[in-house]
Amino acid sequence: MKVSVFTLGCKTNFYESGQIVTALRQAGNDAEHGMHKADVFVINTCAVTGEAERKSRQAVQRMRKLNPLCKVVIVGCAAQKNAQQFADMPNVTFVKGVADKTDIVRHIESAGTDVEQLPSVFAETVFSAQQHTRAFVKIQDGCNNFCSYCIVPYLRGRSRSRRVADVVAEVISAHAAETVLIGIDISQFGRDTGESLPQLFAALADTDTRLRLGSLEAGVVTDELLQALTHVNFCPHFHLSLQSGCDSVLQRMNRKYTTQQYAAAVDKIRSVFPSAAVTTDVIVGFCGETEQEFAATEAFVRQIGFADVHVFPYSPREGTAAFRWQDVDAAVKAQRAERLGQVKQQLKRQFAQSFVGSVQDVLTERTVNGICEGYTPQYLRTYFAGPCRAGSVVKVKITQPFEDGAKGEKV
Fold first, then answer.
1. What totals of helices (H) and strands (E) does the chain contain, helices first?
2. Rounded distance, CA 227 to CA 380, Å?
3. Distance of CA 326 to the CA centre of its chain
4. Which long-range contacts (C-beta less than 8 Å, at least 24 apart) are formed by 332-341?
5. Separation CA 182–CA 212 (nearest Å)
6. For each of the chain's 411 residues, which pLDDT tens digit applies?
7. Helix, strand or coil, per DSSP, at residue 107
8. What is the spatial distance between Cα 59 and Cα 46, in angstroms, rounded to a whole number?
9. What structural domains does the chain harbor?
10. Torsion (CA) 333, 337, 338, 344 in degrees, nearest 10
11. Among 164, 226, 231, which residue's Cα sits nearest to residue 195?
12. In whole angstroms, what is the distance from residue 392 CA to residue 384 CA?
């Protein structure tokens, strides 16, 4: 049977889709990632925003155009939030939530709806089928933070961690030049199992792959963690979730730190990894955000000197604490996103400029018209003349900032 697995949302969703592909193949099916003509489509949905839910529903229509007789199986967060929105759609035969969604192979020809209670422990299943030059390995699921704007803890459940030994086994089996450790909130890794991120990196010390971390909370940046990272082939790139650079907004968001604590975490990182990239997410126009509060965020972003900033206008989500709070006018949100986007571009260029003259190990991803593209350990996108092989690590001398990263010359 031909099965196409289509994914929306976060890196964790893409990893779990890889597990679904692996399980389908082991059961004898012809399964692949993406949206290709198939007998059965599996949609791994996202519900972090209303737009993500809309795209999940829209995907069903696209699949029906590819094969009007197809069966469509829905899994993931949008199904967990509201299964009925999919169950009533033509061609949709089965809807499953978040629990055991990677075991969908057992239900691929079933009919109905199965949205179970969210799990309390990490569910160990098959390793994920990798489709990129770098491997993604899931180490944690769920979230305990309950930020006032976020629906994720209600859809993914409480934090639960994978065992260190299981993580190490998958990292070794992936045989990747680079491995990214991901989860919904990996800062909480090990708190439910008695293990920790430093213990995980100690166990990974003898692996050959270079290691990269997914998104972290500032509070997890400790001397113990940073020292553990110095003993592995670690990519010095820290994505520290910020959301706002104003303490009063952070308090309304139910974030568990102040800007002073966040800045201290960045200083600690840079004392150990001076050339580290620190990237972040910022929500503009959160409930009641004043011009003064936004100005504080803009100033703080400049103060930290981020390597990159993902800027999002606030989007209310039904079911969250902030859903009925005072919203900010859409035009104001757009204007603030534009302003912060300009700051982001300035900081990205400054970060790229700081590497001019240095030689970096670039993991190549693709070649377009003879120009190779890849990433340094600091996740600086780098362009250089080929030839090169995708997945290989090439030494490149950085010569100048260029487009969304830097240009270099192969050494």
1. 12, 19
2. 23
3. 29
4. 332/285, 333/284, 333/285, 336/284, 336/285, 336/289, 336/294, 337/284, 337/285, 337/311, 337/312, 337/313, 339/298, 340/282, 340/284, 340/297, 340/298, 340/301, 340/309, 340/311, 341/311
5. 9
6. 999 999 999 999 999 999 999 999 999 999 999 999 999 999 999 999 989 999 999 999 999 999 999 999 999 999 999 999 999 999 999 999 998 888 888 888 888 888 877 877 887 777 887 767 889 999 999 999 999 999 999 999 999 999 999 999 999 999 999 999 999 999 999 999 999 999 999 999 999 999 999 999 999 999 999 999 999 999 999 999 999 999 999 999 999 999 999 999 999 999 999 999 999 999 999 999 999 999 999 999 999 999 999 999 999 999 999 999 999 999 999 999 999 999 999 999 999 999 999 999 999 999 999 999 999 999 999 999 988 999 999 999 999 999 999 999 999
7. helix
8. 12
9. 2-114 (3.40.50.12160), 135-352 (3.80.30.20), 359-410 (2.40.50.140)
10. 170
11. 164
12. 14
Residue with tokens 């302003």: 339
406 CA to centre of own chain = 23
Which whole-number Å values give the CA distances from 397 to 68, 164, 249, 370, 410, in the listed order? 52, 36, 42, 18, 6
pTM attached to this predicted model = 0.93
3-class DSSP assignment, residue 242: coil
Whether the bond between 119 and the residue before it is cis, its omega within 30 degrees of 0, is no
Distances in whole angstroms, Cα of residue 314 to Cα of each of 299, 304, 329: 19, 22, 10
The residue behind tokens 């900081």 is 347
HSE toward the beta carbon, residue 146, CA cutoff 13 A: 6
Measured CA to CA, the distance from residue 384 to residue 386 in angstroms comes to 6
Please give the C-alpha separations between residue 65 and each of 55, 89, 99, in angstroms, as whole numbers.
Answer: 15, 14, 29
Length of the chain: 411
Torsion of CA 84, 101, 94, 129, to 10 degrees: 130
Spatial separation of the C-alpha atoms in residues 303 and 280, rounded to whole Å: 13
Residue where the block lists tokens 């963690």: 225
For residue 366, report the phi and psi dihedrals to the nearest 5 degrees.
-165, 165
